[in-house]
Here is the input.
Amino acid sequence: MTNHTNPNNNNPSELAGLPKSVGLGEQKKRFSAQVAAGHAHIEGDMTLGKKCITALRSGGEFTRATQNFHAYPARLHPEAGRLLLEALPGKTLADPFCGGGTILVEALIAGRTVFGSDLNPIATLVTTARTALLSPEQLQRLQADLADICARADEKLAKGANVHLPPTILKYKDWYKTNCFNELACLYNEIDKRQSELKPLYQAVFSSLVVKYSLRASDTSNKVVYIPRKNGAVMRAFKEKSEEYVRQLAELQTLVPPNTPPATISLADARRPGFDKVDTIITSPPYPGTYDYLALQQLRQAWFGLDMKTESEIGSRHAFKHAKAAYASWLKDTDKWIAASASALLPGGHLAVVVGEGMQGGKRLRVANPTIQAANHAGLKLLTSASVDRFDPATRIKKVEYILVFEKE
Ligand SMILES: C[S@@+](CC[C@H](N)C(=O)[O-])C[C@H]1O[C@@H](n2cnc3c(N)ncnc32)[C@H](O)[C@@H]1O
Here is the structure.
């Protein structure tokens, strides 16, 4: 990817809609595979601890079913999810910080009844799309509808027809090359007017192109980059993405055991999750000060006219940059979401937390002890604490990433 001049001839700092105050900057990928895992440490149950270390060390390509559909920041490695599910058998599984739904997809494949929630509407959109269990008739209809959307949008584009867009979207026009914006606008318009239970899946395919065909460097950076895009590039990408997604969904249907109920996905704050009485919770809360999960979705927020509750986000990078008390708030929020999860667990049930240290003012922010204390307070007993050191060559800083497994007494 090379930096070129902005094709719309705008000064990047003047591009509308992504204010500096949001402070996205370059955000480091937190995904375990990106930073090599070093020294490992286990306290408590060794057998379970070793399985957690294997999970923490998961890395490499993973293309099973829908796991690679649509980008989502700081996703867990799907193999880590699979290994944790294997280590913690049960019937029902919840993830109150479901993000892109990595654990839920693996749990469906393991035949569990799954519940996922997140505060971020893009997370629930991606999770809904990744966990969709469709009948053969619905899958055929999805394929036909996506092809039809593409054909009609293409026709509209060829005619040069005027596409009406809300001002919330027009405000972000300068984040796109004109040809890409016009193609996205025609697709958006075609999807927006449809009424179908499959509409979130059309939207998810569209959403997968919203950043890639913008001038943003990536999903986790708001730097401006100019990649030459030929006319028709967005349309071709929509067609290819649609075909790939239908294939991935077909694979998911073959892997999920018959009679597995569809996933229940809701937009909810983990401090008041929308599920109850589950035997297992596997989750990864925001690492303190690492990402702005909601602000990162500004372009998608604009296209879909979403209401983003940024003030309710736990541990945002923005808060850690601007508020001294951010760590104290993260600790309080940890108490709250763990208490809520503990009360949703059945007796004898398990909670596994994947969490890593963050940084503030050059200092490492400890996460294990506060999480253990919050869990003990909520009536959960620590079974194992497994950790690996992660040395980030860019910052030359070592941080520790944990899997903490608890049992409800
Ligand atoms: C580490 S990510 C989860 C990634 C996920 N495990 C995956 O594989 O995609 C943390 C998630 O917490 C969500 N989040 C932040 N504050 C939240 C809150 N108060 N309630 C629920 N979810 C929240 C973010 O939107 C983000 O999706």
Q: What stands out?
A: The chain has two domains: 31-123+265-408, 136-255. Residues 31-123+265-408 form a domain with the Rossmann fold fold (CATH 3.40.50.150).
